[in-house]
Structure to design on (621 residues):
């Protein structure tokens, strides 16, 4: 008697049947995902999704994707999940009411009307497979779900599809990026599918995932955002809608506040000086709290409410600062941007709802000054490491415009470290270290002054973790927010820093800015790489040696020049008891091919090697 043939879905439920090439570099495999979006009208959209995903290990538990966001404009019609064992046997079933339900935003948010239902399942064994099905009705069409055939690193896709059925009579824009290098089939303008997409492995210095992985975005040229209709044929249209429908009418301020800011700025000599006074005034009397309500979470709080309550989110605080400057006749632009350490651009070729953050733009002659309104401590006009060097959308009364934020040049991102070091006969050291940081490096150092003393000491011990038994005895800081320079003066000591070798001492002269590891090695690099921010480190240490010791051997001067950067190091004896160590390390910003990675890593390995160079001291005869 023959066994009954298995259905396609039954085959997908068995982890043992996953093709071996889809397991390579994968922690999860999307066995099947069919996404269908039906746009019925400008204010009605149906989203249907069926997803089968196999989780291979604990690092991929979140990859099941069994969750759904909702609010008062979203109605979840269907929500269910089933869990299957490695052999394809059903373990557990979840219906809509079995899903956990909580606010969709993290703690620190004062209030929000966005919630999420999510699968709360703790696996017993791996691998396991989740079948997730959902159907949702949206009364807003501003946020059409995008499609990522490969969802992220270490996730492969066996059979996935995406289809938009547009019955609204409204033109739909589609943009597909990075499809050419992947097995993706286009059935029509709105319907795509893909098979057997291998997992991508994270590699050091990789560009943002969306720069090279396939991505499809969709947007209506006429949309509805929670009852407010807008046009979106281009960024000018979209920005005009934001200005007229979201921002206008939110900037009224009480007269006593207007009088106060006019008094504070009465002697200001320029609009930029007025902006600085108002910015610092805002910082001193407000604090950041996330507020995810209003039209799609996109409409700012009333400026009068921010003034009354003393808090707001990025939208509210930016709008409040703008409202005060408007009263002074200072031109400013509310600006939508992707904020984050990684540099991500608003897509200038595809107008749609984009961005995760709002900042304020102040035109200054032919340039722009950028204000981060959510921080109580950041200096005026400083936006390094979070909103620097990326395309942003400024909102003007005439419409939206894509502009580029400030680029911090390599030579401006300086860490200058000077030290005076005293060495004794036993190899013990005590030193005073003075470091000054500028540009992007300012942002990496200035936060220490807000730490507790205990955490400041821990930060230095971690920073100089190659110095065993480091003792930090004194710390002083000078934060010059006008010049944007952070100065740290630290006194430290360590026993037996210089190693004994018979009656000699082996001393590593680079005490306070040592690179001790290089980027990872790959047998075959698969992705291009980038250095997104250049920097310069300069170091000069005076090392005092006792009169009982003399130099036997110094390191030879080093000078390396590559397309990626340069490195120079030397040590010289300027008197009987004083050595001077000098070092300069420059890393250039740049985008590079995968074939250049080995040379890039070799440069780093040279830096690591020479940073660990030793000199030899011997007793005076």
């Amino acid at each position: 008697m023959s066994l009954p043939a298995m259905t396609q879905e039954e085959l997908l439920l068995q982890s043992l049947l996953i093709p071996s090439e889809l397991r390579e570099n994968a922690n999860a495999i999307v066995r099947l995902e069919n996404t269908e979006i039906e746009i019925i009208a400008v204010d009605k959209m149906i989203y249907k999704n069926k997803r089968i995903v196999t989780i291979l290990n604990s690092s991929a538990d979140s990859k099941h994707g069994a969750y759904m966001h909702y609010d008062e404009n979203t109605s979840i019609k269907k929500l269910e999940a089933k869990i299957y064992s490695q052999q394809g046997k059903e373990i557990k079933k979840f219906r809509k009411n079995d899903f956990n339900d909580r606010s969709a935003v993290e703690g620190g948010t004062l209030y929000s009307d966005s919630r999420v239902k999510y699968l709360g399942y703790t696996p017993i064994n791996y691998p396991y497979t989740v079948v997730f099905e959902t159907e949702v009705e949206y009364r807003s069409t501003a946020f059409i779900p995008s499609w990522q055939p490969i969802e992220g690193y270490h996730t492969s896709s066996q059979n996935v599809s995406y289809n938009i059925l547009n019955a609204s009579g409204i033109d739909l824009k589609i943009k597909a990026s990075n499809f050419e290098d992947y097995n993706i089939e286009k059935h029509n303008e709105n319907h795509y599918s893909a098979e057997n997409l291998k997992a991508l492995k994270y590699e050091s210095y990789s560009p943002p995932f969306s720069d090279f992985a396939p991505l499809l975005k969709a947007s209506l040229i006429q949309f509805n955002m929670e009852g407010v209709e807008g046009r979106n044929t281009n960024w000018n249209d979209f920005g005009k809608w934001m200005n007229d429908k979201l921002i206008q009418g939110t900037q009224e301020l009480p007269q006593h506040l207007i009088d106060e800011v006019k008094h504070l700025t009465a002697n200001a000599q320029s609009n930029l000086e007025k902006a600085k006074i108002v910015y610092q005034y805002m910082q001193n009397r407000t604090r950041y709290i996330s507020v995810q309500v209003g039209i799609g979470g996109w409409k700012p709080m009333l400026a009068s409410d921010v003034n009354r309550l003393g808090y707001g989110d990025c939208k509210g605080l930016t709008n409040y600062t703008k409202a005060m400057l408007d009263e002074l006749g200072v031109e400013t632009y509310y600006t939508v941007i992707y904020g984050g350490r990684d540099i991500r651009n608003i897509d200038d070729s595809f107008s749609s709802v984009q961005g995760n953050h709002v900042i304020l733009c102040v035109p200054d002659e032919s340039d722009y000054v950028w204000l981060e309104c959510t921080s109580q401590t950041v200096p005026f006009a400083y936006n390094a490491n979070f909103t620097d060097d990326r395309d942003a959308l400024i909102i003007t009364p005439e419409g939206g415009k894509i502009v580029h934020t400030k680029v911090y040049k390599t030579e401006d991102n300086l860490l200058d470290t000077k030290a005076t070091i005293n060495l004794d006969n036993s190899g013990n050291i005590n030193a005073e270290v003075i470091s000054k940081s500028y540009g992007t490096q300012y942002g990496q150092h200035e936060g220490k002054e807000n730490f507790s003393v205990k955490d400041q000491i821990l930060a230095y011990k971690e920073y100089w973790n190659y110095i065993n038994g480091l003792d930090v005895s004194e710390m002083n800081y000078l934060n010059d927010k006008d010049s944007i320079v952070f100065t740290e003066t630290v006194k430290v000591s360590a026993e037996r820093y210089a190693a004994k070798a018979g009656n000699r001492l082996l001393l590593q002269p680079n005490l306070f800015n040592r690179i001790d590891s290089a980027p990872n090695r790959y047998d075959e690099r698969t992705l291009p790489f980038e250095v997104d921010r250049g920097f310069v480190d300069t170091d000069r240490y005076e090392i005092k040696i006792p009169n009982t010791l003399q130099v036997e051997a110094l390191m030879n001067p080093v000078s390396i020049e590559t397309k990626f950067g340069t490195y120079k190091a030397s040590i010289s004896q300027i008197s009987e008891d004083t050595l001077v160590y000098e070092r300069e390390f420059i890393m250039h910003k740049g985008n590079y091919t995968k074939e250049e990675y080995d040379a890039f890593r070799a440069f780093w390995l040279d830096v690591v090697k020479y940073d660990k160079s030793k000199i030899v001291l011997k007793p005076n005869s």
Remarks:
- DSSP finds ten helices and 38 strands in the chain.
- The chain has a mean pLDDT of 94.
- Residues 427 and 496 are 5 Å apart (CA to CA).
